[in-house]
Amino acid sequence: MDRSVMSQTKPLFDRITLLRNRARAEVRGPEYFLHQEALDEVKEKLSDINRTFTAPAIVTGFPNFWGAAFADAKILADDDTLDLEPAAHDLIIHAMCLHWSNDPVGQLIQCRRALRPDGVLIVALLGGQTLAELRTALSEAEAAIRGGLSPRVAPMAEIRDLGALLQRAGLNLPVADSTQRAVSYKDIFALMKDLRAMAETNAISDRAKNFVPKNLFEHAGRIYQDVFPAPDGRITATFDLVFLTGWAPDETQQKPLRPGSAKTRLADFLNTTELGEDAKPVKEEETRKK
């Protein structure tokens, strides 16, 4: 592609707006409950690894929270170009900011290059099911009132796609898992107030920048209440926390066996008879009858 064309491509997210949202959240009193859940999960993963890390680094948009949790770690901002030296760290935690990156693969590649051999990268981010209810309510309300749609909730990747990013970045032994938390709010306005305190409000470059009529959110609130009510008469918001784990390549790591190199037959392990190529397959309905 022509470089002049690439330079004209607008990034998905407006970095200036994102940083302004974070600064406002810190001044007014940030809401850290999602970060706390991510931190608890990261610490559990580290305890499972059972290794002492001597040179950790954390990439985050909330340095106060994550810096307090890892006092000996290098804390750096999630800029497009990360302040990381090659092979300088045995642990990197990318903490709750990859979903705001204009180049998530590039972020992971930079982290992989900064890892020592057999170093580990743990990523915590928001996944594709996050705020699915709010996305639906706003879309239906805007279509009804304005006859069109504007991007108001940031697009987020699904876990199956996020797991593949680890391999694209050159990391070994990739693992992706997720957990969802349903949170109830009084109404849509209480939810949006919480999102502002988390600095998770709209920072999409192509977002509508003109005045938004109040009745749009009022109508969206009614749709939200009707379609996604909480058991206590409030509304429910889903937050999809995704965790990615990958290792920098190293000769000491386990490698998959070559096809045909197994020394034990699966049939022997299962204590069953292995069917030959000419054996008739068991029909599905027959299996259900047994």
In order across it, which strands form the biggest sheet? 2-1-3-4-6-5
Q: What share of the residues lie within helices?
A: 25-40%
The count of DSSP E runs of length 2 or more, i.e. the number of strands, is: 6
Largest sheet: 6 strands, mixed
Rg (CA only): 23 Å
N- to C-terminal separation? 59 Å
**Shape category:** globular
**Beta-strand content:** 15-25%
User: Element order, helices and strands?
Assistant: HHHEHEEHEHHEHHEHH
Structural classification: alpha/beta
Q: Count the helices. How many? A: 11
Q: What is the arithmetic mean of pLDDT?
A: 84
- In the predicted model, the low-confidence regions spanning at least 5 consecutive residues are 1-7, 279-290
